Amino acid sequence: MENNEKNTENSSQLNKELEKKALSREVVTYLIFGVLTTFVGWAVYFAIMLGGRALLSIPNDDTTSGAYIGLYTAAQLIQWVCAVLFAFFTNRKWVFTEADKSKKILPQLLTFSGGRVITLGLDYVITLVGAMALTALLPALNSVSIIGITLNFNEVAAKVAAAFVVIVCNYIFSKIFVFKKKKD
User: Which of 1, 92, 110, 131 could bridge across to 158 with cysteines, CB 3.0–4.6 Å?
Assistant: First the structure.
């Protein structure tokens, strides 16, 4: 009898250790794919912003005109679609490996996208308000040239701040609502 209790206790301890390792692996892979997703989104966003600013002759210090807001909104929406698709498929395959794989992709993608709409709003507001505030406070950083590309550094800084908030919120939403473990 005492031997069975020890085996149960050892088994329970082993299960806890395995769950802890699985969670650690999940968090690390989520961060890796979260960073890659961020880069996919940023590549699309900054390509649209740089091209749009040049095409529409929007100066780098402009973060308030109607032309800027229109371009900014289009860039945010297009980058969001690209990032959501990339994130969904990488998360489904490589991050949340213990999630219930019997769920159909389309309903799961719609739930995933629904959560990402909330963080799109956060990203939109944090980046826009941050860019406006930093541009007003630090006008010297409106035009910074990096490897031959001129950017509004304040806008980049606001986008980086937004990314941290978005990555954390997206992980929590995905873990709780989208990629749930299969019920035993």
Answer: 131
Q: Which two tokens stand for residue 4?
A: 């069975």
Q: What is the 3-state secondary structure (H, E, C) of the chain?
A: CHHHHHHHHHHHHHHHHHHHHHHHHHHHHHHHHHHHHHHHHHHHHHHHHHHHHHHHCCCCCCCCCHHHHHHHHHHHHHHHHHHHHHHHHHHHHHHCCCECCCCCHHHHHHHHHHHHHHHHHHHHHHHHHHHHHHHHHCHHHCCEEECCEEECHHHHHHHHHHHHHHHHHHHHHHHHHHCCECCC
Task: Tell me, yes or no, if the pTM score tops 0.85.
Answer: no
When pLDDT is cut at 50, 70 and 90, the band that residue 4 belongs to is: low
